[in-house]
Amino acid sequence: MQREMLRENRIHGNSMYPVSVYPSVEQLNGNSILESHWHEEMEFIIVEQGALFFRRI
After folding, report:
1. Highest taxon of the source (predicted)?
2. DSSP state, 6?
3. For 18-42, how does the pLDDT look when each residue is reduced to its tens digit (9 = 90+)?
């Protein structure tokens, strides 16, 4: 059931157009606010400056 616990409940777009744009992901105290999660929609992350680190926990 770990997989279901990580499912994001937020709806991105709608069933006809499942797309949303989030202009920035800010950081708090050096820790990303983007938590480990999954959802049915695809997710694209574009880094224009700085660094990005993904880690599986």
Report:
1. Bacteria
2. T
3. 888 877 766 555 666 677 888 888 8
CA angle 36, 42, 47 (to 5 degrees): 70
CB 45 within 8 A of CB 52: yes
Counted residue by residue, the chain has a size of: 57
Domain positions in the chain are 1-57
CB 48 within 8 A of CB 42: no
Structure tokens at 34: 């983007």
Picking from 27, 4, 52, the residue whose alpha carbon sits closest to that of residue 43 is 52
Going by DSSP bridges, is the β-strand pair 27-28/31-32 parallel, antiparallel, or unpaired?
antiparallel
Tell me: pLDDT of 52 over 70: yes
pTM: 0.59
